[in-house]
Structures are given as structure tokens and as C-alpha cells.
Design goal:
Strand order of the largest sheet: 2-3-7-6-1-5-4
Largest sheet: 7 strands, mixed
Low-confidence stretches: 1-10
Radius of gyration: 19 Å
Order of helices and strands: EHHEEHHHHEHHHHEHHEEHH
Helix content: 25-40%
Bound molecules: zinc ion
Shape: globular
Number of strands: 7
């Protein structure tokens, strides 16, 4: 139905949270031989943080416009943190590794599925308050993903499962063409190899601009990026530096198109990996929580571990 009101009078969210999940980035040493954040010198992040990227020696960074704080990702469980339990924890506020007694991934451990279904951030925001909050999962998915959903779909990562269980729309190549979704690789250059030569290839900066526009339309927006974890496992320096610099350009695009008075941007991860190319496995390092915009000084002190992310964001949007 067409709204009777002109667009500028329609009710839009007054505050927004944009959660950018970047798989497998921890806070590591300043050693450029190990840590691509220090060998590639990402210009946007360096500028945002006054030239002080976080390291194990300087874990907390505050600049005029941003805060970067360390989050514990070990969940109080021995062994190396994994994506399944880490992402389930990030998106629910429940300690998924404690629940199953181990770190597990990359897919969701079966007994965690009901936990994610019930406690995920989308669902908590839909249930909160007198009016349902608008949420978005900004990633675009190819046709073969929808085929997979129609099948047995046993293997699920936490973010997709959370969205699926909460009735959140999965965006398609049509959204990608209109700029109303963002490819998991930012540029969509891989889409020609997965059955979609029609997907427009854009720059990481343009992907950031598009994500900022999606965020303006919703109370809560999630975007997930995984190539950082892949690069960490491969221990390929050139690939690691490329994804670091692409993320940097992407974040610059987000930054330059979000209003810091109304939007809180939180960039975080599930476990360390990329920051230490001396090992192909994950690390027990803390993960960064980079915050800029609305209320970062209120949010940051409440964030100690990845288990805190969902409850803090839900409280903020409800407040
Ligand atoms: Zn991961």
C-alpha cells in the first residue's frame, strides 16, 4: 500500500546500530612479519585511531572519533576458539562454548540451534518494546544459497541460522544490483564464478557506502565478512594484506556515509587468526571492538567479552 505521507514525514528509526562482523581478527603483536595490520598500514584505520592500531601492548585505543577495546573471545573454555561457538555467542549473548563444553565450528553444533533460534539478536529486537524494530541482514546471497535452504540444510553458520529463525529477509542478486545488499567479498568479483555474471562489481568503498545506506533504513543491521579468517588459515601474506586493505576501504565507505549523531557502528570478530600469520590456526588473543558514532562512550565500558555484544546492543536500541 502506498503511504499517504511524503517520504520525509514517514517514521524512520531515530537511532541505528550497524554491526560489522569480520571473521578471525584478533589483537596481536606489533610485529609486521606476523601481523598484516602492521605490515599493510591500513590508512583509514590509522587515521581514525590517530595512528595507533591496537596491539597486545596497547589494547585500548581512544581517539577523537572512535574507541577500540579488547574483547575476550576464549569464553572461559580451554582450547582454540572456533567460529560456530564464537558467532553463536556474539549473536545471542549466551556463552555457547560453555553450553556445549567446547569450542566448535565453523558450523553450529546441533544442540546450539535451539539456543540461537530463541535468543538471537534479531528475535530479541523484534520482541522488544511496543513496536517491532526493523532489522536487516545486509549480505547478498546467490541462487544456490536459496537452493540449499530448500534442501536438508544441515550445516548452518550462526548468523544465517539466526536470520532464518527470525524471519529476516535474505537479500539476493537483485538487491546487489540495486545497491541494497552487500556481497560477502565486498566487491562481488567472485559472483561471476557462482552463477551470477550479472552481479555488478564495485569497490570496497562503494560497498561501505551501500551498507551505510541500508543501516539508515533499519534499527539494526548486520553484515558478515569471512575472507579475513580464510586469509589467516592460508598464511598467505599478500592475500592477508589485500583483505586488510579492502576492509579498510570498506570501513572508510561506511564511515563517510553514516551520521555519527544517530548511528553506532561496531566492528568486531569471533576469535583471533589473521593477526598472527605465524600460525594457520585460530588464536586465543582478544578480538577488537571498534566503535564509532552514537553512544560509543556508554557502550564501550560494558563490553568485556564477545558474550556482552548482543545484550548491550539490545539495551541500547531499547533505551
Ligand atoms: Zn570465525
Amino acid at each position: 500500500m502506498q503511504s499517504a505521507l511524503p517520504a520525509q514525514y514517514q517514521r524512520k528509526p531515530q537511532k541505528h546500530v550497524l554491526l560489522i562482523f569480520i571473521d578471525g581478527i584478533g589483537i596481536g603483536t606489533i610485529d609486521p612479519q606476523r601481523n598484516p595490520f602492521f605490515s599493510s598500514n591500513p590508512p583509514f584505520l590509522n587515521n581514525l585511531l590517530d595512528g595507533r592500531l591496537p596491539s597486545l601492548r596497547n589494547r585500548f585505543v581512544e581517539s577523537a572519533e572512535a574507541l577500540c577495546i579488547p574483547l575476550n573471545a576464549t569464553l572461559g573454555v580451554q582450547g582454540l576458539p572456533q567460529s560456530g561457538t564464537g558467532q553463536a555467542t556474539l549473536y545471542t549473548g549466551m556463552n555457547a562454548a560453555r553450553i556445549i563444553g567446547q569450542h566448535f565450528g565453523p558450523y553450529l553444533y546441533s544442540t546450539l540451534k535451539p539456543v540461537v533460534a530463541e535468543h538471537n539478536i534479531f528475535r530479541r529486537l523484534h520482541a522488544a518494546g511496543p513496536t517491532k524494530m526493523s532489522t536487516a541482514f545486509a549480505n547478498a546471497f546467490p541462487a544456490r544459497f536459496f537452493d540449499y535452504l530448500e534442501g536438508h540444510r544441515k550445516r548452518m553458520v550462526a548468523g544465517i541460522f539466526a536470520a532464518l529463525m527470525s524471519g529476516v529477509e535474505f537479500r539476493t542478486v537483485e538487491n546487489l544490483k540495486r545497491g541494497t545488499a552487500v556481497s560477502a567479498d565486498l566487491t562481488a568479483q567472485r559472483w561471476k564464478d557462482i552463477g551470477h555474471p550479472e552481479a555488478p562489481v564495485i569497490t570496497p568503498y562503494e560497498a561501505g557506502r551501500n551498507l551505510a545506506a541500508i543501516s539508515r533504513q533499519n534499527h539494526f543491521t548486520l553484515f558478515e565478512y569471512f575472507l579475513t579468517d580464510k586469509a589467516g588459515h592460508e598464511r598467505n601474506r599478500s592475500f592477508a594484506e589485500t583483505v586488510t586493505l579492502e576492509c579498510d576501504e570498506f570501513l572508510r565507505g561506511v564511515y563517510e556515509h553514516t551520521n555519527p549523531a544517530s548511528t553506532l557502528v561496531l566492528v568486531t570478530s569471533d576469535h583471533g587468526n589473521l593477526e598472527d600469520l605465524s600460525t594457520k590456526s585460530h588464536t586465543r588473543n582478544p578480538v577488537p571492538a571498534l566503535l564509532w558514532g552514537n553512544a560509543r562512550h556508554i557502550i564501550a565500558p560494558r563490553l568485556k567479552s564477545i558474550v556482552d555484544v548482543t545484550p548491550v546492543l539490545v539495551d541500547f536500541l531499547n533505551g
